[in-house]
Structures are given as C-alpha cells and as structure tokens.
C-alpha cells in the first residue's frame, strides 16, 4: 500500500474571498508565512480558486498595478487542482508533473482540508525512507 | 558502527541493551500520551509518569555501567550525553502529561487539532530515534535518519507558530489557567527539539567512531 495524500498533507490553509483586494492577500500571506491562499467559491455553484505569490508578483507588481484596487478575482486561477485525501502520493506526483504545479489542494467531500506541496512530498519520502532502511 | 569498531564485552552489551530499552520506553510513553490526547482522557496520560519511573532506573544503570568502564573513554561522554538527552525528553513528556491533567478542557478544545498533530509527530520522532540508534549499532545511514528527524522537528516548529497565534487570542480566567496552557504548549513543542538534539549526539558518536 502506497502512502496516502492525507498522511503528508499540511492542514495549514488560509482562505480569502473573491472580492478581497490584493493588499488583503499580501497581508495574510506575510502574516501567516504562506505562499498561496485558497479563494473561496462565490456561491454553491462556484468552485475553489487559488492565488499565489507568483500571481501577485507577475500579474500585479510587475505591471505596477495598485494592490488596493485590484481584486483577487482578477488574478486568481480557477478551478484549483484538487485531489481526494485518499489519493496515493505516487499518483499525485504524476499529476503535479503533468500539470507542472507545485502544490495541490486536498478535498474531503467538497471541502478543502489541506494542501500538499513538492516540499511536503520530499519530506514525506525522506521520513518514510528513514523508517524503512 | 559500534560493531565495526569495538569488540563487545559484557558491559558494552548491557549498555546497548539498556539504551534500546530506554528509547523503547520513550516510544511507548509518547504513544500513550498521544492516545490520551486523542481520546481526551487526561487520566490515561498517567502511563507516562509510570514509564518515566522505569526509564529513570534504566538510565541510572546505563550511566553507572559506562562509568564502571564500558566503552573506550573517548566514546563515553557523548554516549552519556545522548542518554541524558533521552532522559530530558522523558521528563518533558512527563511535564506535558501532568499539565494535560490540569488544563482547562474548553481551552484545550481550541488547540486540540495542533496538539494532536504535534503529539503524533513526537511519537514518530521517537520511533525514528530508535531506528537511528539501531543504525548506529548495526548497518545503515544514520545521516538520513538524522535528516528525517530534523524534517519532523521543522514540522513541529511550523505548528508551534500556529499555536502561538491561537494562544494569544485565548481569554483566560486567571494566572494559573494561562500558565498551565502556556507550559503545556511549551512542553509538547520542546520534545521535538530534545529528540533532535539526541539524534545529533548519535551522529557525533558515529563521526567519533570513524
């Protein structure tokens, strides 16, 4: 049996609303020492999105846009790529390679309950290896 | 590594056997503490106190056997420091268990998720320390076990920041309520630091034996 995503995921996730400003996002990212925020769905028919430090730097700061005026919905990526908490890590790695992404959010039902980054996978693999060898 | 360098005498074998038992007891105590937290049953954490008493006896045996002449003199100080470090981990775990019995249940509920995660990582780190010691005694790469322990310690450090964030928002009724929760968090987050230090001593022992 391979390692499951839920065993290595990080449950430290922060959310932000679609209509929040980029400034709000920066404040939260700096305060919580994070690299991405989950963008909450607008309503039941909407889906989760993601806004990362990359989005802020390349889409806002690079173009000298006002961080107090630009809304999260203008720069967020949607839909966010997610996996079920019981997905095997091997499958997750293939998925991250295929889509060239550094982090994937973890779902339990319809709720985002965690995030797995490449660093989490590397740490998980090293700990597992130390236990086995 | 010990096998490669030293021809074992009776006293060396006794020390190795006792150190293994000492770490084994630490693993049992960590798992027992984790279960008590999981089930939210403070009285179950008393197993840590009982195991700590057994561990104290083993530690005294180890230290006295080493001072009676087990191992080459240059190995003894780091081996003793390693044992003392495991003992300090035990003492800190005992403090956490005692404080868990005193902590206000509603306050604990607000930090339960983070505490459970830390207790679980601590138990995993004890297991890794056990494997690292076996590696020193037998074959394998201790550097990798040391890295795995450091990775776990970093995970605890990250959670500690989240916990502090939550703690400063908690309203406490009086000085003692605040002190108990603060000391409890301090204890459970310190365990990983101590295991990391113990693992570093193992690495130093390995280098000194090369």
Brief write-up:
The two termini of chain A are 17 Å apart. Chain A has six helices and six strands; from the N terminus they run αβαββααβαββα. Chain A has a single domain (5-132), classed as CBS-domain, CATH 3.10.580.
Written overview of the protein:
Chain A has one domain: CBS-domain (Roll). Chain A contains 6 helices and 6 strands, in the order H-E-H-E-E-H-H-E-H-E-E-H. Chain A has helices at 5-8, 22-32, 53-61, 72-75, 89-99, 118-132; strands at residues 15-16, 36-39, 49-52, 82-84, 103-108, 111-117. In chain A, the strands form 2 sheets. In chain A, strands 1-2-3 form a 3-stranded mixed β-sheet. In chain A, strands 4-5-6 form a 3-stranded mixed β-sheet. The longest helix of chain A has 15 residues, at 118-132. The mean pLDDT of chain A is 92. The termini of chain B are close together. Chain B is elongated, with a radius of gyration of 18 Å. Chain B has a single domain (2-209), classed as Methane Monooxygenase Hydroxylase, Chain G, domain 1 (Up-down Bundle), CATH 1.20.58. Chain B contains 7 helices and no strands. At the A-B interface, helix 6 of A face helix 5 and helix 6 of B.
What descriptive keywords fit this protein?
heterodimer, A: 133 residues, alpha/beta, three-stranded mixed β-sheet, 6 helices, 6 strands, 41% helix, B: 210 residues, mainly alpha, 7 helices, elongated
Number of domains of chain B: 1
Assembly level: heterodimer
List low-confidence stretches of chain B.
Answer: none
CATH class of chain A: Alpha Beta
- The CATH H-level homologous superfamily of chain A: CBS-domain
Output the CATH topology of chain B: Methane Monooxygenase Hydroxylase, Chain G, domain 1
**Rg of Cα set of chain B:** 18 Å
Radius of gyration of chain A over alpha carbons?
16 Å
CATH architecture descriptor text of chain A: Roll
Termini distance of chain A? 17 Å
- Main sheet: strand order of chain A: 1-2-3
Q: What is the highest CATH level, the class of chain B?
A: Mainly Alpha
Fraction in helix of chain A? 40-55%
Elements of chain B, N to C (H/E): HHHHHHH
Give the domain tally of chain A.
1
CATH second-level architecture of chain B: Up-down Bundle
């Amino acid at each position: 049996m391979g390692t499951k995503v839920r065993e290595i995921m990080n449950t430290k996730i922060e959310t932000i609303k679609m209509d929040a400003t980029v400034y709000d996002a920066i404040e939260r990212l700096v305060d919580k020492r994070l690299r991405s925020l989950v963008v909450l769905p607008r309503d039941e028919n909407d889906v989760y999105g993601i806004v990362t430090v990359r989005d802020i730097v390349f889409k806002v700061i690079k173009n000298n846009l006002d961080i107090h005026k630009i809304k999260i919905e203008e720069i967020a990526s949607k839909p966010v790529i997610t996996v079920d908490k019981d997905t095997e890590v091997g499958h997750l790695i293939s998925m991250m390679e295929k889509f060239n992404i550094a982090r994937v959010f973890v779902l339990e039902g319809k709720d985002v309950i965690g995030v797995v980054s490449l660093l989490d996978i590397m740490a998980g693999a090293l700990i597992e290896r130390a236990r086995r060898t | 590594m010990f096998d490669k360098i030293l021809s074992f005498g009776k006293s060396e074998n006794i020390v190795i056997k006792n150190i293994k038992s000492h770490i084994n007891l630490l693993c049992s105590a960590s798992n027992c503490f984790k279960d008590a937290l999981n089930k939210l049953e403070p009285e179950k954490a008393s197993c840590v106190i009982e195991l700590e008493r057994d561990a104290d006896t083993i530690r005294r045996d180890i230290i006295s056997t080493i001072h009676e002449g087990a191992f080459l003199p240059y190995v003894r100080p780091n081996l003793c420091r390693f044992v003392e470090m495991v003992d300090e981990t035990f003492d800190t775990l005992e403090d956490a268990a005692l404080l868990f019995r005193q902590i206000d249940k509603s306050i604990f509920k607000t930090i339960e998720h983070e505490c459970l995660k830390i207790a679980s990582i601590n138990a995993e780190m004890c297991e890794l320390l056990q494997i690292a010691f076996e590696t020193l005694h037998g074959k394998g790469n201790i550097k990798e076990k040391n890295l795995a322990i450091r990775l776990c310690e970093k995970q605890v450090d990250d959670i500690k920041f989240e916990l502090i964030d939550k703690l400063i928002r908690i309203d406490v009724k009086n000085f003692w309520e605040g002190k108990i929760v603060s000391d409890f968090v301090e204890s459970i987050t310190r365990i990983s630091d101590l295991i990391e230090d113990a693992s570093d001593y193992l690495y130093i022992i390995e280098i000194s034996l090369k």
